[in-house]
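Hello again, I could really use a second opinion on something today. My current little project is about how a certain protein chain folds up. You're getting the sequence in one-letter code plus the fold written as tokens. Here's the protein in full, and shout if anything looks odd to you:
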Amino acid sequence: MDWFMAAAVGASGGAVMESVDFIKAIRWHRQMPWNVQSDTIDPPKRRADVRPGEEHLPAPGWKAYSLAGVLRLFVSGTLTGAMAATYPQITSPAVAFFIGLGALSAVQEATTLVPLMVKSAGRAALSGVVGEAQQQAQTLQQDRQQPGPGQSTDALLGSQVGHPSINDPQTDTSVVVQQDPTGEGGVA
């Protein structure tokens, strides 16, 4: 099955899910879903996802409801086509249909996980940068401890004890360099 045929079968799975939602809305409200006012959806209790003032919004109308249905078909077909193009050897009509059925839910769940994935990827990148900086500092410290080709071990020991050597630059430890919040740096 090629990806285009799988996308069509997946879109039919999305159409089935849209039909089920349509039937449930008609049975619950006893009218067409695009004529349902927002204050009649669940009047006895407020839901956490409804902001103040949204209870009295007008009905969306058939155009908005149709657009939502078309977008559901698009999401189902796109996800199914992408899966069929990626894994063509395991894509059968039944698999494509079931992917189309659950495509909208899968996309909704994936979008809730994106901030978590970005956060952990940022932490991993930051820990990689910190680890690399620590490794460079450790390598630099080891290089300072090993005598170079023209340097005796006495000169190295003298620099560790506090005696200045010719090849060892001295740093002023009384001045601490800090970076201010503007990122320009400064001396404290």
Notes: The longest helix spans residues 93-145. The helical segments are 3-29, 61-86, 93-145, 153-161. The radius of gyration is 32 Å.
